[in-house]
Amino acid sequence: MEVLPFLSRHRGIYLRYTLLGLIIVLSFASFQLFFVLGDHQPRHFIIPVLLGTFIGILLSTLVALRYEIAERKRAFRAVADLAQEFIYVRNLDGSYEYVSPSCLAVTGYSQEEYYARPHLMDELIVEDDQPLWRQHVHRMHEHGVPERLLIRIRTLQGELRWLEHVCSDVRDVQGRILGVRSTNLDVTDRILREQQLSVAAIAFETHEAILITDADNRIMRANKAFTEITGYEASEVIGKTPSILKSGKHDQAFYEKMWATLGREGRWEGELLDRRKSGDIYPKHLTITAVKDEQGKVSNYVGIFSDITAHKQAEAEIHRLAFYDTLTSLPNRRLLVDRLQQAMVTSKRNDGYGAVLFIDLDNFKELNDTQGHDVGDQLLIEVANRLLACVRTGDTVARLGGDEFVVMLASLFDTDLDVVPRAESVASKVLAALHMPYLLNGQPYHGTASIGVTLFHGNEKSVDELLKHSDMALYQAKNSGRATLRFFDPSMQQALEARARLRMDMRVALRERQFKLYFQPQVDAEGDCIGAEVLLRWQHPERGLLQPKEFIPYAEEAGLIGDIDFMVLEEACMHLRAWQGDEYLQQIPLAVNISAAAFMRDDFVDDVLAIINRCGVDSALVKLELTETSLVDRVDESIGKISRLKSAGVRFSLDDFGTGFSSLAYLRQLPISQLKIDRAFVRNVVTERSDAVIAKTIVGMAHNLGLEVVAEGVETKEQLEVLVSFGCRIFQGYLFSRPLSLVEFESRR
Ligand code: C2E
Ligand code: CA
Ligand code: CA
Asked: What is the pLDDT of residue 4?
């Protein structure tokens, strides 16, 4: 309970005004005295003095009081006007005694409006806070205790502001309420800040790890998610730098770039690998933001990151689902198209060829319908495995869906001559692999497949066209009775068919003796014939005389070359036999070419001896030409075979010498009697120094080992002269004679 301060506190001031009153009284008395001088009655003197004194005191007190009140009010206003809080004083009827300027500034209303509207302040309190406000006013009047209240007002401009309001009532000495005074502090900014802080505090504890460092990159704070992800407690890392999290998987340049970006843009975002406390390395997505103070200097770095291990796994899984077939794990159509596009670009760049094999299982639907999808799936998985076994790295096996598969042979081939046989051979291999019996659910199953093949050269065709063409070829394959392959490209298909026919014809040729032996003389330095090499020709009924390169490779492919070689050997022996008694011909040995396939046969030695014996010829007249490829695989076995025949009198010649892997050490072990320098060296012996050196070395080496040397493919006198100068003594080539028919050879003397 308080009384207005300026009435109670400063009594001393009264004395000053009382003294002033007395002075007035004394002057009044002196004035009276002036009149008294004419009267001399004491009564007339005392009464006016007393009266004058009384009036003087009364007047001076009243004046002092008025002055004092005005002075106090002025002082109060002077202070209140400057106060940050806005202050108002109200009378009991609610009318405003005083409203401070800051009150006007905050609420937006003018002084006049306050004075005109006694309850203006109550009206400003927002609707929701009205009950609170009324309770507060009630309590204050009831208990008379000043009370603090946080209340919201709506300003004239409609803005919402928070006030920290304190008020107390003003009472007289008897405790009667005279009015209310109140101070109000606008705390809106503080409240908002507090709200932001609590939002920030909540945000800090999110599922993303947050790391706050100072400008020197020393860790100041870390949240719970940080501990969960990294395994480090905040207390373990505070004061350290985030480099304790490094995995060592990124080089210095990576971090330098990160800091450069941070310095330049104030922010870095990316993925990186870090290490947990446990030592595990994990992928994270990290954002670092540089926080700057008012001067623009970096005060902190805030790093926010999340563990993206699961995300990465999901990404990989999505990738797998998007690009791979779930059943077989083979690339799907999407990935195939992608790889085809790449292969075509590479093929264009390298001017190479590639092939697409479109494969479809025959009767798959039947299997699926009768045995169920499980069994069908088993077959598809097995087919996928078999296809993979048929191709090389760089090729692609894809499943387009259902029982459709595609094999892409990447562009690795220089010419269509290479790619056609390779595509055909892979396709044949695929067919053979897919035609092998399957075991499905313990039951044997025999399935076949059809293949359509198309080639690509650069990207002249689109991927769609390519797949369409191979599909069309597949259709052709299906139409022609299934279990077969077809080329889309008409010329390829013709070539394919021609080769297939050739293989068939070759069997007939063997039976019907269409193969003809030609004889190419081998001569000594004087040009006298000292032997001949037997070279095969095929007198084809429709295609005329075919050279070895037109049929030998296919005879090899068809597995007929061994039979052909023995046929040639037998016929050669028959000629030797026939020449017996002819003075010139009977002393001419014949050299027969023997392929690896023939030489590798287990019965090779016996079969050769059987032929020689059957024909009753001198084995010394039989020479067998082998190439190194026949020998290198099984050297010991080869040595054994050659030795046995050698001891029976048969001689061996090593053909095409110099092109293979010949090492001196292994040559020495071979019981052969002759080397034939490959045509390739002879061709350039005059022009290429290196070829001359090789030829010379071979001759020298052969002589050291006690071997004869034959130079084949001698076409010019110059070549002959050089070879003679190297010490070569036996020659074969167009310079002396082309391969001759039997009649020509026999009549040549
Ligand atoms: P090869 O054994 O190296 O036969 C020598 C080849 O060189 C023959 O080709 C022959 O005609 C050719 N030739 C000879 N002198 C010259 C010359 O001065 N210049 C040129 N440019 N070439 C010359 P051909 O008859 O076409 O035979 C090619 C290949 O076919 C033979 O190479 C041989 O590997 C194989 N061949 C031929 N007949 C048979 C055979 O009965 N059985 C086996 N397995 N392979 C055979
Ligand atoms: Ca030969
Ligand atoms: Ca040769």
From this structure: 40
CA of 569 to the centre of ligand 2 (A): 13
In a domain, 322, yes or no: no
Claim to verify: residue 594 and residue 680 sit in the same structural domain: yes
Probe target for ligand 1 pocket from 520, 523, 535, 655, with the most ligand atoms within 8 Å of CB: 535
Q: For ligand 1, say whether the CB of 535 is within 6 Å of any of its atoms.
A: yes
147 and 26, same structural domain? no
Regarding the beta carbon of 565 and ligand 1, being less than 6 Å apart is answered yes
Best mean pLDDT range from 18-22, 45-49, 219-223: 219-223
Condensed to tens digits (0 to 9), the pLDDT of residues 440-496 reads 988 899 999 999 999 898 888 899 989 989 998 998 888 888 888 998 877 767 777
Write down the pLDDT at residue 5: 41
Same domain assignment for residues 125 and 241: no
Kindly give the distance from the C-alpha atom of residue 679 to the centroid of ligand 1, in angstroms, as a whole number: 10
Tell whether 319 is covered by a domain: no
Per the structure, the count of domains in the chain is: 5
Q: What is the length of the chain?
A: 749
Residue nearest to atom 4 of ligand 1 (CA): 535
Report the DSSP beta bridge partners of residue 539. Answer: 545
Structural domain ending residue among the three candidates 466, 488, 510: 488
Residue with the nearest Cα to atom 34 of ligand 1? 593
Predicted confidence band at 9 (pLDDT cuts at 50, 70, 90)?
very low
CATH number of the domain that 603 lies in?
3.20.20.450
Residues 381 and 424 in one domain: yes
Other CB atoms within 10 Å distance of the CB of residue 541: 11
Burial of 358 (0-12, 13-18, 19+ CB in 10 A): buried
Q: Does residue 642 fall inside a structural domain?
A: yes
515 occurs within a structural domain: yes
* pLDDT > 90: percent of the chain: 55
With a 6 Å cutoff on the Cβ, whether 529 touches ligand 1 is no
Model confidence over 223-259: pLDDT tens digits?
Answer: 999 999 999 999 999 999 999 999 999 999 999 999 9
Cα of 392 from ligand 3 centre, angstroms: 32
Boundary-marking domain end, from 192, 219, 246: 192
What is the span of the domain harbouring residue 136? 109-192
Q: 544 and 568 share a domain?
A: yes
| Ligand 1, atom 45: closest residue by C-alpha | 593
Report which of 237, 241, 201 is spatially closest to residue 222, judged by C-alpha positions: 237
Handedness of CA 243, 247, 248, 249 (dihedral sign): negative
Ligand 1 atom 2, closest CA: 593
pLDDT digits (tens, 9 = 90+) for 650-706: 999 999 988 766 566 677 888 999 999 999 999 999 999 988 998 998 899 889 889
Rg of the chain over all Cα atoms, to the nearest angstrom? 59
Q: Is 715 in the pocket of ligand 1 (CB under 6 A)?
A: yes
- CB 562 near ligand 1, within 6 Å: no
Please give the Cα distance from 355 to 335 (Å, whole number): 17
Residues 175-188 have a mean pLDDT of 85
Q: Which ligand is nearest to the CA of 560?
A: 1
Residues 524 and 590 in one domain: yes
Query: CA 369 to CA 495: how far, in whole Å?
Result: 38
Helix/strand/coil percent split, the chain, to 5: 50, 25, 25
Residue 129 maps to which CATH number? 3.30.450.20
Whether the CB of 548 sits within 6 Å of ligand 1: yes
Q: Which domain CATH number covers 423?
A: 3.30.70.270
Q: Which ligand is nearest to the CA of 658?
A: 3
Whether residue 584 has pLDDT greater than 90? yes
